[in-house]
Amino acid sequence: MTVSPSAGPTVGHARASLPELLQRWRDDLAAWAIPEEISASVTESPWVLPRQVFARRADTVSAQPDGESYQRAWAALDPPGTVLDVGSGPGAACLPLLPRTSALTAVDADEHMLTLLAERATARGVAATRVPGRWPQVASAVPAADVVTCHHVLYNVPEIDDFLIALTEHARRLVVVEITATHPLTSLNSLWLAFHGLRRPDRPTADDVLGIATALGLHGESKRWRRVGGAGYASFTELVDVTRRRLCLPPARAGDVADALVGAGVDPAHPRDLGSSRRDVVTIWWPGSAKRGCASEPTTTGPFTGDNENSKR
Ligand SMILES: C[S@@+](CC[C@H](N)C(=O)[O-])C[C@H]1O[C@@H](n2cnc3c(N)ncnc32)[C@H](O)[C@@H]1O
Question: Are the C-beta atoms of 223 and 70 separated by less than 8 Å?
């Protein structure tokens, strides 16, 4: 696979090459590793992906579809076509598109997430094809689709170039990616400082994705907007539990975490992730390169356009 790096993206004040941008992306993600002395002090994993919270989000957004990512994918499904959702979770990206979806394929590294999605699709009369596994490692087993969606996955992906290229190769019409403007865990940085005296990273950001996409030669557009709502928790207790685990604190500290969340502005009557209730997200979309019925080389080169900071560089 050949991609054509273009001049433009910067690291600091200097022009940066694609390899430099990719190295920085990997380094920025690696910086989120938790120091051994802190992670060893608890028995529960801090890397919590609360399935029930993502399921509620899928239900909420499919009841009332809205936002730039939905609108871009919806428009690309006129006429209706097939959809591939990568890192689908329970389906927040793809379920709202079902009225214009002729066939749905969902890929997720977590099989339980795929089960939650399949239940929801079945309830709407659609049998989703489930592909458990990591993208792009499973990509060769996945057929191309008219529209490929991928929401809130990229901050989990160190090898982002292969990931984006495989998305492009699997879309006949359009790829639509959604990502928070800043790494979602930055909302807990002040609590890390308060509980552990540890300064956490504030990178990478969506601008870094745009820089990499431009350097990869993907010809796309982006829009930064505000998703009102955020992940919904069934109770304040559930939010405290997830936050406590993320902060590497034992169950005995639940009360302290509850106090800290309230102090940081969380309303126990409407429990949401810190900073997520009105969180800035970025939608990035670009044409796919798949030919009808097969996966092929990306076809497009050119600058990214949009209203995000990166597009002004
Ligand atoms: C934050 S959740 C987002 C779920 C859904 N797209 C949404 O917007 O609510 C990220 C999902 O991506 C999955 N995931 C992370 N990295 C992945 C990869 N490389 N390949 C496939 N799935 C991945 C996780 O298992 C999880 O279900």
Answer: no
